[in-house]
Specification:
Length: 292
């Protein structure tokens, strides 16, 4: 997640045409946010805050506290200060700081369906692996910290389920199982179903039909599409960034899925060594995986 995020940060908001022209195969810096190479954004910061709260004695309140510390104190930031913060996320964290119940802090309106909870949700999969079961309610409550609309929560549940299938079955079989679940089970009685109707057919869609903005459905579709249309970590992240627009988030989520599919060892060495705070992040990953 962190490597994909950092690769996409310099190119955020570029058009698809411009991204295709400017994105190279090397980790770059500066660009849109004027940050050094290897710098990751709020996407990774909030994923790390989530993972940190899951190492021991998880509670949604611990995650909420970490989010406030991130914004106020620079917890799990690459250079000590938060940057590139989405408005819905900032508003929710301000509510958390004021003492609002974490389950009620996230925006619940139609316009609150940005990708700010989807971008940070994947670490929960390792918590489930430690506990030995998948819990839809935990995913929904983690989303609701910042994004409480049913569509955002459903998108998070969907992404984590797909990631779990990759972990268990590998990429190709995972999508076959996922396609069947989406068609038959997940959304048959859900009023949000229409927004997820393209998921079973993502492998058939051309790039021209994939959008890569900040809308949660677009990020969900784009990240899965990038994974399905490439064969390794590097190409998946490059494809995500070359879609343009919300490049850091699309590449962050794509990178998370590709990491599960191919292993972190598949990340290009130059990208990995360029990553800011690489050792700290890998230490947290080790603690998350071991349960302490």
């Amino acid at each position: 997640m962190a490597v994909g995020d950092a690769f996409g940060v310099p190119y955020e908001f570029l058009s698809r045409e411009e991204a295709r022209r400017r994105v190279t195969e090397s980790m770059q810096g500066w660009g849109t946010h004027n940050q050094p190479p290897g710098t990751w954004s709020d996407d990774t910061s909030l994923a790390l805050c989530t993972a940190d709260a899951m190492v021991k004695d998880y509670s949604v309140s611990k995650v909420a506290q970490n989010f406030v510390k991130w914004l106020d104190e620079g917890l799990w930031t690459p250079h000590g200060t938060a940057f590139d913060i989405g408005g819905t996320t900032r508003d929710a964290i301000n509510r958390l700081r004021s003492g609002v119940d974490p389950m009620l802090a996230g925006g619940q309106d139609e316009m609150d369906n940005g990708n700010g909870s989807l971008m940070r949700i994947l670490p929960v999969l390792w918590y489930f692996e430690q506990k030995g079961h998948y819990d839809v309610r935990t995913v929904a409550e983690l989303s609701s910290l910042t994004h409480g609309h049913p569509r955002s929560m459903t998108a998070c549940v969907t992404l984590v389920r797909f990631a779990q299938l990759i972990l268990y079955h590998g990429k190709e079989k995972a999508f076959d199982v996922f396609r069947k679940e989406v068609k038959e089970n997940l959304f048959t009685q859900d009023e949000q179903a229409a927004h997820f109707s393209r998921l079973p057919h993502l492998d058939e869609l051309p790039e021209s039909e994939i959008q890569s903005g900040g809308y949660v459905i677009h990020t969900l579709e784009a990240s899965i599409w990038c994974l399905l249309n490439t064969g390794n970590y590097k190409d998946a992240v490059l494809k995500a960034v070359r879609l343009g627009d919300d490049t850091d988030t699309t590449a962050c989520v794509t990178g998370g899925l590709a990491g599960i599919a191919y292993g972190w060892q598949s990340i290009p060495d130059e990208w990995l060594t360029s990553l800011v705070q690489k050792d700290e992040i890998m230490g947290l990953c080790d603690r998350l995986e071991s349960g302490g």
